[in-house]
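A quick word before the example. In earlier lectures we treated sequence and structure as two separate objects. From today on, think of them as two lines of the same record. Here is M23ase beta-sheet core domain-containing protein written that way.
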Amino acid sequence: LKGMSLASITERLDALYRSVKLEQLSYEDIRDSLKNDLSRLRVTPSILPVTGGKFSSPFGYRKHPITQKYSFHRGQDIKVRSGTPVYATANGKVIAARWDGNLGLYVKLDHGNGFHTLYGHLRRIGVDEGQRVKRGDPLGESGNSGSFTTSPHLHYEVRIYNQPQNPKNFF
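And the structure line, produced from the sequence above:
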């Protein structure tokens, strides 16, 4: 600073101020981007809905165990003991918790961003329609309910904008 004029000092301070402002805006953009990514991650199914299970009937075309006809299976079956806790795989809202003839007792979650998950053949439902849940919250217990089941298991579906997705891609 010694030997600098007031005008050149002011000019350097202005340049430093603009540089600091630019850095601040960059950090704010990064922070906002990370917040958006975190929000998206919270609503993306990314954990197994049960523990200790074994994958059985896979996603995709398969010979149906009851009808013996080839048909598209929209989910992944996970063989577990009846009464095994079933967990939400992402934050969301319960949009269905009821009986269906084929699925038996089931829970369907809306996670936002077009994501939905479905948990079928339950023995017991532990949530209510309209309830908000977080990843890892219990939804009910696995079972053998409904007409399209041969043994206790969880039928688990992931959909994006109502298009069935292979659940294994989210574990």
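Notice the following. The mean pLDDT is 93. We will return to this example when we discuss secondary structure assignment.
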